[in-house]
């Protein structure tokens, strides 16, 4: 059963590679409603650890957009770019415990290998210079996702994965696990497109607990369907999805609630934005969300029920 306040700690963690789009809004709203309906905390983390992908001014724009949509976070904004010493300490600890190793393999060498073939796993002649760091993986992981149900992964089918790139930048998988532990996050509501990252994060949680870098179990997970645009592609910054606009916030909220299993009656249709958001918190039920990978944006054009 989901914890309630003060035990519930959720978060929204956008990457500042562009403005928030409708898919971002659905993800932010789902995590916000789940936290606030449990009287829990909703934290905001800016995942700014990949400068080549970031867009100037995007972080501030994300904050101002969330504020304009009345999705107010608890506490201070957490920036990954300020956490690099913790990340490096974790990499060093995993290397020292022989749970990770240096890897010199290039993308070109691995392009015909969907699973890393462990070429560098038992090498002891490599150093940090111009090499990546991979985590050793083993075993199986099973979890019961709050939306998608039981999920099972064999790590042998996924292989050892990179936790620090050869250019020194830290991988998303490492940073998100360390930061969820640092912030006390125990409930993660995010898009279905990140579901395949979960076993890697579970492996890291296990390994980091073993080396005593963290002292926490895995959070509960809920993966919502991603939104597919009219062009058949997932709405994303990479696919240049249009930015959401505060003047259209009521229409966007209505459409987002439909994607999250909350069709609106005539009374909700006539509500103001603030009234509708308050109603959504009071009527939130994550079990209403469809256990599917994606929802087309075109199916969200009729947000009102006849009741």
Automatic annotation (TrEMBL):
SUPFAM superfamilies: Nucleotidylyl transferase
Record-given protein name: Glutamyl-Q tRNA(Asp) synthetase
Positions with a binding annotation for ATP: 237
Protein family (similarity comment): Belongs to the class-I aminoacyl-tRNA synthetase family. GluQ subfamily.
GO process terms (BP): glutamyl-tRNA aminoacylation; tRNA modification
Gene: gluQ
Short sequence motif 'HIGH' region: positions: 14-24
GO molecular function, one term: zinc ion binding
Function as written in the Swiss-Prot or TrEMBL entry: Catalyzes the tRNA-independent activation of glutamate in presence of ATP and the subsequent transfer of glutamate onto a tRNA(Asp). Glutamate is transferred on the 2-amino-5-(4,5-dihydroxy-2-cyclopenten-1-yl) moiety of the queuosine in the wobble position of the QUC anticodon.
GO cellular component: cytosol
InterPro entries in the record: Glu-Q_tRNA(Asp)_Synthase, Glu/Gln-tRNA-synth, Glu/Gln-tRNA-synth_Ib_cat-dom, GluQ/Sye, Rossmann-like_a/b/a_fold
Keyword entries, A-Z: Aminoacyl-tRNA synthetase, ATP-binding, Ligase, Metal-binding, Nucleotide-binding, Protein biosynthesis, Zinc
Binding residues annotated for L-glutamate, in chain numbering: 11-15, 47, 172, 190
Residues that, per the record, bind Zn(2+): 103, 105, 116, 120
One Pfam entry name: tRNA-synt_1c
Motif 'KMSKS' region positions after renumbering to this chain: 234-238
Lineage: Bacteria, Pseudomonadati, Pseudomonadota, Gammaproteobacteria, Oceanospirillales
HAMAP family for this protein: Glu_Q_tRNA_synth (MF_01428)
Cofactor note: Binds 1 zinc ion per subunit.
Domain Glutamyl/glutaminyl-tRNA synthetase class Ib catalytic: 11-241
EC numbers: 6.1.1.-
């Amino acid at each position: 059963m989901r914890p309630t306040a003060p035990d519930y700690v959720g978060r929204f963690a956008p990457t500042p590679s562009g403005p928030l789009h409708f898919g971002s809004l659905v993800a932010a709203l789902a995590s916000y409603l789940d936290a606030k309906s449990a009287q829990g905390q909703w934290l905001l983390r800016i995942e700014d650890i990949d400068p080549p992908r970031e867009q100037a001014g995007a972080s501030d724009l994300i904050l101002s957009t969330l504020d304009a949509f009345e999705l107010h976070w608890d506490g201070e904004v957490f920036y990954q770019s300020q956490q690099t010493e913790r990340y490096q300490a974790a990499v060093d600890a995993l290397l020292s415990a022989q749970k990770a190793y240096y890897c010199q393999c290039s993308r070109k060498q691995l392009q015909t290998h969907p699973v890393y073939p462990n070429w560098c796993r038992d090498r002891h002649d490599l150093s940090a210079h111009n090499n990546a760091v991979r985590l050793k993986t083993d075993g199986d992981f099973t979890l019961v996702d709050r939306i998608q149900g039981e999920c099972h992964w064999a790590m042998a089918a996924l292989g050892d994965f990179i936790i620090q790139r050869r250019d020194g930048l830290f991988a998303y998988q490492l940073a998100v696990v360390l930061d969820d532990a640092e912030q006390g996050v125990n409930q993660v509501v995010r898009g279905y497109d990140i579901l395949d990252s979960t076993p890697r994060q579970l492996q890291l949680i296990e390994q980091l607990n073993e080396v005593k870098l963290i002292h926490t179990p895995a959070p509960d997970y809920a993966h919502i369907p991603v939104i597919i645009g009219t062009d058949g592609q997932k709405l994303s910054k990479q696919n240049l999805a249009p930015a959401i606009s505060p003047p259209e916030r009521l229409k966007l909220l209505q459409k987002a609630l439909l994607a999250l299993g909350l069709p609106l009656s005539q009374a909700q249709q006539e509500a103001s934005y603030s009234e509708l958001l308050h109603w959504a918190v009071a009527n939130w039920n994550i079990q209403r969300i469809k256990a599917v990978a994606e929802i087309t944006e075109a199916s969200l054009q009729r947000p009102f029920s006849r009741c």
